[in-house]
Each structure stands twice: as C-alpha cells, then as structure tokens.
Amino acid sequence: MKRSGVKFWCFGCSVVAASLLFAQTGTRQDALALEQQGRNAEAAQIWSGIAQREPANAEALAHLGLIEARQEHYAQAIDHYRRALAINQTFPGLEMNLGLALFKTDQFGEAMKAFAAELERHPGDLRPTTLLGMTHYAMGDYLVAIPYLEKATEADRQNAALRMTLARSCLWSGQYACVVKAAGQVLALNPGNADAAMLAGEGLAAEGNTAAAIEQFRAAAANPSAPEAHFALGYLFWTAGKNEDAAAEFEAEARVNPGNALARACEEAAAAGKRPEAPLIDVMENAQPPAQP
Questions:
Q1: Please, what is the Cα angle at 84 between 81 and 88, to 5 degrees?
Q2: Cα–Cα distance between 273 and 276 in angstroms, integer?
Q3: What is the pLDDT of residue 134?
Q4: Which residue blocks in the chain are alpha helix, DSSP H?
C-alpha cells in the first residue's frame, strides 16, 4: 500500500510538473486552441507565461482580460485591458472589451471614453455606436443618447427593445415627436405592446393630440397589467371636462392598481369641480426620468 501510494504521489507530481512546463513553454497557438475548446484556465496559464516572458506582449494581456471577463471577474479584466492598452493602443477590439467591462461595473463615464475611442477608429461601426447610446442612457444623458440610438435602430430595424430605449430617451428629454415615432415603430413590430402604446400616448398627449392619445391609452388598457393606462384616460377626460368618463377611468385604475393614490385624489378633485393643475405628461409617473445614483 505504501509503495502504491508513493507511486501515485510521484505520478501526481509529474502531472503538475508537466502542466507547469506547458504553461511556461506553451505557444500563442496553444492558448488560442485551448480558448476555443473552453479550457480557459489552461489558456490563462499559457498567456500568463507569455506575458512574463514578453512583457511588451499586448495580446497576452488582452486575452487574460478576456478570460477574466468571461468569468465576470471584471476588475481583473479591466486591469489586464488597461495594461495592454498602455503597450498597444490600437490592438483590435481592446477598447471595446475594456468599455464592456467598465459598463458592466457601472463605470459609465470611463466606458463612454472607451467606446468613443473605438468608434473614432472604426467610424460607422454599429457596436460602439449602440453602446455609446446605451451608456449615455445609463448615465441619464437622454438627449445625447438619441442620435446614437437612432443610428443603431436604423441598422437593426427588428430590435424592439432598442427602439423602446430610444422612445424612453426621447420621452425623458422632452422630444415628443421622437417618442411617437419610435413607439409607433415598436407597435408596427408588435401591435400588442402595451408599454409602447403608453409611450405613444404620452408623446401624443404632450403634443396636444388628445384624440390619438386616448386611442393609444385604450389599446394599452386592454392589457390588465399596464400601469397608469386608465389613469391617463381619466386625466385626459377630466382635462376635457368629461368628469363622468374621468370618474369611470379613475375607478378602473384603482381596481387595477390599488396603490395609485393619485388616481383617487384626481377623482375626488374632479367630483369637487376642480380642474387639473398640470398637463398629463407632468403627472405620469413613468414619464419622469428615473433618479440617478
């Protein structure tokens, strides 16, 4: 038993030694092949060995960053990417990967710089264009985000989620014609999208097109889970002096969304003969930009 244990221990030592030797002598091609096979830990050992032997090898550091990012170790990935950039600022895809890691750690200002640098090197590239739009959106720079998101949605016409992001950017920056257009394009792709109908209704109401807004809010209200649809209808009817219609919609809102205290307050105000003090767009909760951290 003792001899077999010693043999097993010696065999284990041999395997470890061979692995360490491979890590120190493995080539770029070996590392790339291992990455393609999903053997990231072994590939990382080889890239680390290359980086130690060749301190000016940006590719090794870039791949170490990529492997860390795949494991969601973004802080380590960012460190590797930045070290690679210090060696070679034009290494393909490096600014993009750095920007993605920064974006995923909510470092939006730094991510924006990385995506902008990538776009400067590759004008017209859809990836940094889209990501710049999303980064400005995440930062609350909705007006700045719009042109990037417009270019992205023009290039990807079937992407309803991206168009919704554009529509919200337009809404939260007061660009109501843009809201109506973007939300309308989403509805063309998916006619039953209640969120898009709400955005279109809000944009139309802000433009003063009450009849068209009511049509959109009615479409949204067909979805029981759509928040504020009945409230929006009630508010527009109240604004038009149709208090009975307004009361019915405020009641419907209270049934669908019992927590909407504003619906009750507006219903009581209408019953007391009071008039709305603000336009609909100023009182709709989802029409207000979210608070930035």
A1: 130
A2: 10
A3: 98
A4: 2-25, 28-36, 40-53, 58-70, 74-87, 94-104, 108-121, 126-139, 142-155, 160-172, 176-189, 194-206, 210-221, 229-239, 243-256, 261-271, 280-283
pLDDT at 18: 43
pLDDT at site 224:
81
Q: What is the mean pLDDT of each run of 10 residues along the chain (293 residues)?
A: 49 45 75 95 96 96 97 98 96 96 97 97 95 98 98 95 98 98 97 96 97 97 88 96 95 90 93 93 93 75
Cα–Cα distance, 118 to 253 (Å, whole number): 48
What is the per-residue pLDDT for 9?
45
Who contacts 205 (Cβ-Cβ below 8 Å, separation ≥6)? Answer: 213, 232, 236, 279, 280, 281
In contact, 23 and 46? CB cutoff 8 Å: yes
Whole-angstrom distance, CA of residue 266 vs CA of residue 42: 65
Q: Give the integer Cα–Cα distance in Å for 222 and 140.
A: 31
Nearest-angstrom CA–CA distance, 134 and 256: 32
pLDDT of residue 227: 82
Alpha helices in 156-260 (DSSP H): 160-172, 176-189, 194-206, 210-221, 229-239, 243-256
Cα dihedral 49, 55, 58, 63 in deg (nearest 10): 20
Contact in structure between 98 and 76 (CB atoms under 8 Å): no
Position 13 scores a pLDDT of 44
User: Largest Cα–Cα distance in the chain?
Assistant: 99
Both tokens assigned to 210 = 């009450």
Sign of torsion over alpha carbons 70, 72, 74, 79? negative
